[in-house]
Amino acid sequence: MSNKTIGFVGGGRIVRIFLEGWTRAKELPASITVSDPNAELLAKLKGRFPFVASSADDGAAAAKDIVFLAVHPPVVADVAGQIKASLRPDALLVSLAPKFTLAKLTGLLGGFTRLARVIPNAPSVVGAGFNPVAFAPGLAAGDRAEVMALLATLGDCPEVAEEKLEAYAVLTAMGPTYFWFQLHALREVAAGFGLSDAEIVPAMKRMACGATRTLLESGLAPGEVMDLIPVKPLAEMEPQVAGMYRTCLPAIYEKIKP
């Protein structure tokens, strides 16, 4: 548990994911403040996490020891300009948005350089996240360790080159959305066959994990892996789905690149 005060500027989905992950792991920071102009959102957040202090004033969250900038890219510039006067000289600011580089954030924050960037991952909610992080040059080892300790509770948090963060945004941050609807549909179909949830859940977890490991760790060529199972009920749809990956994902990557 961190003794540092934590501020979240923005109270949306990723804040709920972090708070839920820390709560489940019993690793909640001692003091958490969330700011957002949406009073209804803050009330809902406080209903789920009553220990959180909330405020409509972003300056309240920005005045903490470690500040997470948890707003969408279209408003990062405006919000950064609004909070720069509230940042303490010894604070750490962690941006959770793609597109805005460390250098650009420094400019928006009036020269503030105690920065990190993280691409957050929704499975952090169950401690199974993959949250790559990049640090500003010159940030001390102790400061880096503070950020890493908060992220480690949520899953893996490898330090990566900053220029690769947007690629991770497409691969890991958005990645679950490529599969969740399919896995949910499969779960419903299996239930229709008479399997109980107690039977479906362990089978699906092992199947999904095992399928990924077989593709990545078996040493077989991709074609060989895909030939391990002779019956492929969705084979006719595979070219269409693969085509969507090859067109939609490069397009979104171009949109979020700095």
Summarize, please.
The chain has 258 residues and is of the alpha/beta class. The protein is built from eleven helices and nine strands.
Can you characterise this structure?
- This protein is of the alpha/beta class.
- It folds into 2 domains: 5-162, NAD(P)-binding Rossmann-like Domain (Rossmann fold, 3-Layer(aba) Sandwich); 175-256, ProC C-terminal domain-like fold (Orthogonal Bundle).
- The chain is built from 11 helices and 9 strands.
- The chain has helices at residues 13-24, 39-48, 58-62, 73-83, 102-108, 141-152, 165-173, 175-192, 197-217, 222-226, 238-256, and strands at 5-9, 31-35, 53-55, 66-69, 92-95, 115-118, 129-130, 133-135, 155-156.
- A 7-stranded mixed beta sheet has the order 3-2-1-4-5-6-8, with helices on both faces. The protein has a two-stranded parallel ribbon with strand order 7-9.
Which labels suit this protein?
single chain; 258 residues; alpha/beta; Rossmann fold; ProC C-terminal domain-like fold; seven-stranded mixed β-sheet; 11 helices; 9 strands; 50% helix; 12% strand
Q: How does the SSE layout of this entry go?
A:
Layout: E1 5-9, H1 13-24, E2 31-35, H2 39-48, E3 53-55, H3 58-62, E4 66-69, H4 73-83, E5 92-95, H5 102-108, E6 115-118, E7 129-130, E8 133-135, H6 141-152, E9 155-156, H7 165-173, H8 175-192, H9 197-217, H10 222-226, H11 238-256
Parallel strand pairs: 1-2, 1-4, 2-3, 4-5, 5-6, 7-9
Antiparallel strand pairs: 6-8
